[in-house]
Amino acid sequence: MAPPHTEHQPRITALVELARGGDAEAFGQLYDHYQPSIYRFLFYRTRSRPLAEDLTSETFFRALRSLSSFTWQGRDFGAWLTTIARNLAADHFKAARTRLELTTDDMGFHEGDVDGPETDVLRSLTTEALFIALADLPQDQRDCVIMRFLQSLSIAETAEVLGRSEGAVKQLQLRAVRNLAKAMPADQR
Q1: The model scores a pTM over 0.85
Q2: How far is the CA of 44 from the CAs of 18, 67, 178, in angstroms?
Q3: Quick check: 189 and 181 in contact, CB under 8 A?
Q4: Tell me: the pLDDT tens digits for 53-103?
Q5: How open is the CA angle 76-164-138, to the nearest 5 degrees?
Q6: Complete DSSP assignment for 39-107
Q7: Distance CA 111, CA 2 (A)
Q8: Cα gap 20→22, rounded to integer Å
């Protein structure tokens, strides 16, 4: 089955096929294309720059190791990478439930961490309030918000990563946004 169509899909498809054949330069280009998005996803999941960087590296390492088993079958390569990243983050938090790995410096936004139209909205909120509100969401809602608004995945891509239908993701997103709004301090809504 052919890969799903997106604006960059012919180039991505060609790069994936070259990388599957052992072309290191092609994999490097895939890394360059997807690394910012995967890092952003992991940063908002972990709230730690060093941990997000480590998990991003591990995501691409695992992707490289498993590239020969990747099949399109309606899958987007970026969604596949996000699934790997999501599983790594979940594994990390399961293993680290009793550890606190955040430092004060890691909690702040740094120039260039978030790009896109959501930046203005996020800047209007305090970092601490946003992280508290995100952390209080159920995990599936938190993942949905991160994927949709911070990582800019489509409804279809988010549905694939979460293993849900597009309609279920729309409902999940609606509940998440409502819960996030309720959790934010009144002066920052």
Answers
A1: no
A2: 31, 26, 19
A3: yes
A4: 989 988 998 898 888 888 877 678 998 999 999 999 988 877 755 444 443
A5: 110
A6: HHHHHHHH--HHHHHHHHHHHHHHHHHHGGG---TT--HHHHHHHHHHHHHHHHHHHTTT-----HHHH
A7: 38
A8: 5
Please give the structure tokens belonging to residue 72: 């399109």
Cβ neighbours of residue 49 closer than 8 Å, sequence gap 6 or more: 43, 105, 106, 110
Radius of gyration of the chain (CA): 17
Please state, in angstroms and rounded to a whole number, the distance separating the CA atoms of residues 155 and 84.
Answer: 18
Please count the other Cβ atoms lying within 10 Å of the Cβ belonging to residue 11.
Answer: 13
* Structure tokens that stand for 127 in this block: 């970092």
- Number of C-beta neighbours around residue 62 at 10 A: 15
Round to whole Å and give the CA distance between 17 and 4. 15
Q: In the structure encoding, which two tokens stand for residue 66, read together?
A: 């498993």
